[in-house]
Amino acid sequence: VVGRIPVAAILSLGQFLLCLELAGAEPKFDFTELKRTIECQSALMGVKPMLVAGLGNMGYEGTRHNMGQDTVRDLVRLYKATSHSSYEKWIEVELPDEASAIEYVRFSGASSPSRDGSKVTFRVGGEVFLLPEGGEGAGVNLGLVLFVLPYFDINESGHFLSELSQALGIPPRRMIVITDDIQLRRMQVLVSQGIPVAAESPSHPSRDLFGDGHNGLKSINNLMGRANYWRVRLGVSNPRQEHLENKYSLSEWVLGKAPSEERTYLMAPQNRTALEDILRKIGTLESADERSRPN
Is the pTM here over 0.85, yes or no? Predict the structure, then answer.
């Protein structure tokens, strides 16, 4: 949840887990069957796979903080995508000290973590849906799209997405991540790719232009090297912006139920068309890139 864990603790955890990944100590998901299916469909359709992920916490459906994941569920229903497989594993890490481990467990209920001294064990995973025949059955032609729901704790979204994209050979430029954003006003949509230099500049430490303040995106950035993936940010506002800071804390606000019109506004024709245009753009860029390469 936004603001639950000190930034230093998040970065330490992300860096430590990245070291585990590089060292091969972390258990791997078995994507063998999914990879075979994607390779077969890619060959038949003559296109490369794209990935659309929605971030959220398991068990918090309908809240502002689950806008990204709830939107992808809506897209799955709209485009008649089918569930291919779900995955789950447990990760054990050792944090710098026992105080850091206590703080992590205290603020990470969605992943059901446990603690033994400075060691923390938590659950990560996700579900993958495939779009049959590029969505022709739903009246669209979007190519080979995987809709992905990272599970359990939104703050650990990077584990499943980084491993999945690496196993399937999907580079960040063919990934779209949909998430809530407290900096944007209600029902505002902002699309971006990567993090601009201005947002990373030490001279602008307070800037939060493209999602660095969202712990789910921090997890992805830490494990994928702040990669050049697409972001679709859905505005949920915040108590101060709504002049409700005396009534709600930030955690209460993002974990509160969102009005139905706010939960579904990305599904409005003009917004959904913009998302479809991104998918087509990604496919077009990939095709042009392939044609430009020497044989």
Answer: no
